[in-house]
Amino acid sequence: MNAVTEPILSIQNLNKTFADGFQALKNINLEIQKGEIIALLGPNGAGKTTLISAICGIVQANSGTVTVAGYDIARDYRKTRSIIGLVPQELSTDSFETVWNTLVFSRGLFGKKANSAHIEKVLKALSLWDKKDNMLMTLSGGMKRRVLIAKALSHEPAVLFLDEPTAGVDVSLRKDMWKIVQELKNDGVTIILTTHYIEEAEEIADRVGVINAGEIILVEDKTELMSKLGKKQVSLDLCDPLATIPKSLAGYSLELSENKDQLTYTFDSLGDRTGITSLLDDLKAADIYFRDLNTIQSSLEDIFVNLVEESS
Amino acid sequence: MNFYAVMAIYKFEMARTRRTLVQSIVAPVISTSLYFIVFGAAIGSRITEVGGVSYGAFIVPGLIMLNLLMHSISNASFAIYMPKFVGTVYEVLSAPVSTVEVVLGYVGAAATKSIILGLIILATATFFIPLRIEHPVIMLLFVFLTSITFSLLGFILGIWADNFEKLSIVPSLIVTPLVFLGGSFYSTDMLPPFWQSVTLFNPVLYLVSGLRWSFYEISEVNILVSLVSITAFMLLCFSIVLYMFKTGYKLRT
Ligand SMILES: Nc1ncnc2c1ncn2[C@@H]1O[C@H](COP(=O)(O)OP(=O)(O)OP(=O)(O)O)[C@@H](O)[C@H]1O
Ligand SMILES: [Mg+2]
């Protein structure tokens, strides 16, 4: 096997059925390369947290194998877990512990020698330095979220799982978080994050995976995904309402809005010809005039919603 | 061996005690003093001697046992129940630690607290009665083994319990009666023959008897039987903890 192309994380045929008989993961296969940022999208209950928990050792899978940096997560759990950092979705922290102590605890727990300089660096990066002596219960929700991230970073993981890192985090902090993720990537850290904010995936991910009902329904390079599935639309605000779309325009994929004063034309942005010029000519020929024209590009969000609807 | 992890858990748990110093240390000292005043002074004035020692001195090993048992169980059960309850247990479950290391950290800390507590009670007792200890090494060994064993039992309880009621039911409904019926504050010779035989099925009797022997060389059962029993029980508890972690029982879904 070539060391360069060997994935840092490899999931094969992973299945999980909970004690109550509910199958939360259905034959998951996924490979992630070192230094990648991959965003897992999926509706509530899709299985994102279950997948992460199975990799980190919190949930026991029923079958399948997972390797991290070539080590099996069950057999070589010491090796794999010391490489992994986990930021859980739930905001669970000790109440009476101080920010500083909880980071020292995490670092020790993961088998790393004490290193105040590193902890100081992490706290400063997450704007928690002035809170270092605060008890955790005195922090706001967003600060607790950052403490959880700081705890995961305290032991210098090579693979970082962020389970909805920006839930309940304000906009400026979210931007800070994206910056930190980018910096970690530059340091060679592999990042797997889940999110419900599609713009977050659009902003920072290299690849996007979509999970629905326990299955991975798609894993794609983000830009490829967007251009492949990306549709462009032109909407025309008509001067006069139109009763129906004239026969002469039947060749175009046109849609008339409910109040009959807007036409929407959908085309493939990657096609050789978009057909816009001829449409405009044909509109004129049919005596249809418009006041305004807008183009719309579908976002990852639209793509995502379509995918999930199709699969279920 | 992930030594740093053991230390991290151990220190975390000891820090938790420092925050609840009153509850952990002052409360037992007060309750012990009350026992001496009520049992020692009030009852002791009627029962003068048991097996050649004054009643006040006679109850010291029983009192120490009572506290070791109760506090070992509650310390260790809380130590693992709270993270489960609050959700912070995710970190221990996802950490590169073996069961032995987790046990060393949590149970080690709980046992340490119990041992300190036992010694504090012993010190408190000397304010009330003149104390003699015939076999200090065996006494310490007993305190040590009991603290570890019942911290292990508490740990099992904390993993098993999924609500606060279950957490408190074992100490209050099982351990307390066993301690009081196990000859902590009386000699089983004082009981009718039938109840003497029944008491032999009470495991706490073997502990109290063993500890008392290390103080005054008086015992209801042979000291070796006591030592073997507590060691066997310790191994049993440890095996159960190992099994729980191996299967993920109530820890990993
Ligand atoms: N311990 C459990 N026992 C039974 N079912 C469970 C358990 N944990 C999770 N599930 C179920 O498994 C499914 C997947 O849950 P999971 O938490 O992985 O979803 P998710 O994709 O992370 O959702 P969200 O976006 O809401 O965080 C859900 O239907 C959930 O109810
Ligand atoms: Mg989730």
TrEMBL record, chain A:
The keyword Transport applies. GO terms for molecular function: ATP binding; ATP hydrolysis activity. InterPro entries: AAA+_ATPase, ABC_transporter-like_ATP-bd, ABC_transporter-like_CS, ABC_transporter_ATP-binding, P-loop_NTPase. Residues 9-238 form the ABC transporter domain. Keywords: ATP-binding, Nucleotide-binding, Transport. PANTHER family: ABC TRANSPORTER ATP-BINDING PROTEIN. This is Multidrug ABC transporter ATP-binding protein.
Automatic annotation (TrEMBL), chain B:
Keywords: Cell membrane, Membrane, Transmembrane, Transmembrane helix, Transport. Coiled coil: none annotated. GO terms for molecular function: ABC-type transporter activity. Pfam families: ABC2_membrane. It is a multi-pass membrane protein. It comes from the Bacteria. InterPro entries: ABC-2_transport_permease (IPR052522), ABC2_TM (IPR013525), ABC2_TM_bact-type (IPR047817), ABC_2_transport (IPR000412). One of its GO terms (cellular component) is ATP-binding cassette (ABC) transporter complex. PROSITE patterns: ABC_TM2 (PS51012). It is found in: Cell inner membrane; Membrane. Residues 19-248 form the ABC transmembrane type-2 domain. The chain crosses the membrane at residues 21-43, 55-73, 138-161, 167-186, 198-215, 221-245. Belongs to the ABC-2 integral membrane protein family. This is Transport permease protein. The lineage of its organism: Bacteria, Pseudomonadati, Pseudomonadota, Gammaproteobacteria, OMG group.
